[in-house]
UniProtKB/TrEMBL annotation:
SUPFAM superfamilies: Formate/glycerate dehydrogenase catalytic domain-like, NAD(P)-binding Rossmann-fold domains. Belongs to the D-isomer specific 2-hydroxyacid dehydrogenase family. Keywords: NAD, Oxidoreductase. This is Hydroxyacid dehydrogenase. Residues 50-329 form the D-isomer specific 2-hydroxyacid dehydrogenase catalytic domain. The lineage of its organism: Bacteria, Bacillati, Actinomycetota, Actinomycetes, Kitasatosporales. Residues 125-298 form the D-isomer specific 2-hydroxyacid dehydrogenase NAD-binding domain. It comes from the Bacteria.
Amino acid sequence: MSVSGDRTDRPTAVCVMNPDVAARVLPSELRTRLSASVRLAPDPEDPYAGENFAAAVADADVLISGWGCPRLTAEVLARAPRLRAVMHAAGTVKELVSDAVWERGIVVSSAADANAGPVVSYTLALITLAVRRTLTMAAGYRDGWPGFGARSGGDGHTIGIVGASRIGRRVIAGLTASDAGYDILVSDPYLTDEEASRLGAVRVELAELCRRSGAVSIHAPLLPETVGLLDADMLALIPDGGVLINTARGAIVDTAALTRECSSGRLEAYLDVTDPEPLPPDQPLLGLPNVLVTPHIAGAQGSEVRRLGAYAVAEVERWLRGEPLLGEVTREALPRLA
């Protein structure tokens, strides 16, 4: 569809997200760029809707959503007859969209690809630390300088990737691009042997991956079938001195089982996500020297969140030109996405 030069003929876009992140996701230069294509409501200098979500989107043709945007229920959509597109300036849209969105034929896009880059970089950094058993080495430093054999860490040569998601694939690419000479295993029920080979990995079942990997990094989506996927039996297969890395979703790992493994000192863990999230202050994982728990910071943070807004603005521009959306989310694909 084309956009008329007359401001009153342009589609109306409404931005709804947490006020504390809105100014960073859509700073003034992005709002100016956006207002060249659509009519921002309210004023472009204050584009974030108030408390009454249904009323805020009543006249919207496009919703630019983000963290804190309420769910698009059938009741909300009934009061937004003009809404045709949702551009989500964040990652997952599972908590945002309802069946009513698909039934109305509303186009949905997510900036998950823009958010993937920081997660990949963070994960690769954790893998670098993990293969050196950094937490264990640091914790033992006060007891004496370790010999070279101890400092060489555990058997981190084989890296297991659980889930060939967009992030999982990019982590594999980062590992293969390094000169560390890793052997990379991947477990994903939707991946073929040939696809894994093209990625630079070997596809195996999860149990074999755990048994053979010095470091296991989780990149699967949270689905009914992946809740507790890394349970006590799977964790027990990871070799002594192995490491678990989770930047995906906390509920994929059995927290109680992981707590037992780490409390014994057998495994290290680097956890950016937990179950529950946040962990209670007295949860043992928070006090263990061989566990690093961070508060869900792997994704875009600080100035990085601007890339999410830029992605959403570019999607609005593509949609107005009638071009395919790079981040389009379909009803059929949603269950398999993070």
